[in-house]
Design goal:
By secondary structure, the protein is α/β, with parallel strands linked by helices. 35% of the residues lie in helices and 10% in strands. The chain is built from 7 helices and 4 strands. It has a 4-stranded parallel beta sheet. β3, α6 and β4 form a beta-alpha-beta unit. α1 packs across α2 and α4 packs parallel to α7. The protein is elongated, with a radius of gyration of 21 Å. The two termini are 34 Å apart.
């Protein structure tokens, strides 16, 4: 049972539970992806244990008699990180957002003894060394990841598989040049820039 009463929300301490995200979320700054992920899981668990609906999950500033900018100017304005947080909470409650892997790099293959993405795999070594994703050839394994990088064009890992991963709640990015060499150069450029993804702003 939750027994400790702390001073966190003026005139609402006795019945509320406080969750604090470390940092100052002003002027475009928002919680990191790791904070958002952990916070969403914690809040979803508290909602389940204490039977709290999402409509009763409020920011500090949302409570009456509390004159504060907390949890920051980006909570409901600017980046609106409340919307992102609430979306992740709903995904977790629906069983979609529970992922055992952070990042999976998916290469194409055909059943043995058929071909596989040998050159793409070789070209990705520098990227793998820099960012350390889980790597493999299984779309079934990839669906357990929060982020999936598909290497190569649709002739390898098809659009149907890509859409199935998105439906499973994965954030999917495809790195595909006109040929294997160009795909390799695109991966090398990400390494040079220190960017894990081209389209997602994450920092893990």
């Amino acid at each position: 049972a939750l027994e400790t009463v702390s001073y966190h929300v003026f005139q609402h301490d006795s019945y509320s539970v406080g969750v604090v995200f470390a940092g100052s979320f002003m002027n475009g700054k928002v919680p990191t992806s790791a904070q958002m992920r952990a916070g969403a899981h914690l809040i979803a668990w508290l909602m389940q244990e204490l039977k709290i609906p999402l409509a009763r999950v409020w920011g500090h500033r949302d409570f009456a008699d509390n004159v504060t900018v907390c949890p920051g100017s980006e909570w409901i304005g600017g980046a609106r990180w409340r919307d992102t947080l609430f979306q992740r909470i709903e995904e977790i409650r629906n069983g979609v957002g529970i992922k055992s892997l952070r990042h999976y790099m998916l290469f194409w293959q055909r059943a043995y003894p058929g071909p596989l993405a040998r050159q793409d795999f070789i070209n990705a070594v520098g990227y793998v060394a820099r960012f350390r994703p889980t790597i493999g050839f299984s779309a079934d394994d990839a669906r357990h990841a929060e982020y999936v990088t598909i290497v190569g064009g649709e002739a390898g890992v098809g659009l149907e598989t890509e859409q199935a991963l998105r439906t499973a709640g994965c954030k999917v990015e495809r790195i595909a040049g006109r040929n294997e060499d160009e795909t390799g150069r695109m991966l090398a450029e990400l390494v040079r820039l220190g960017r894990r993804f081209r389209t997602f702003e994450v920092d893990f």
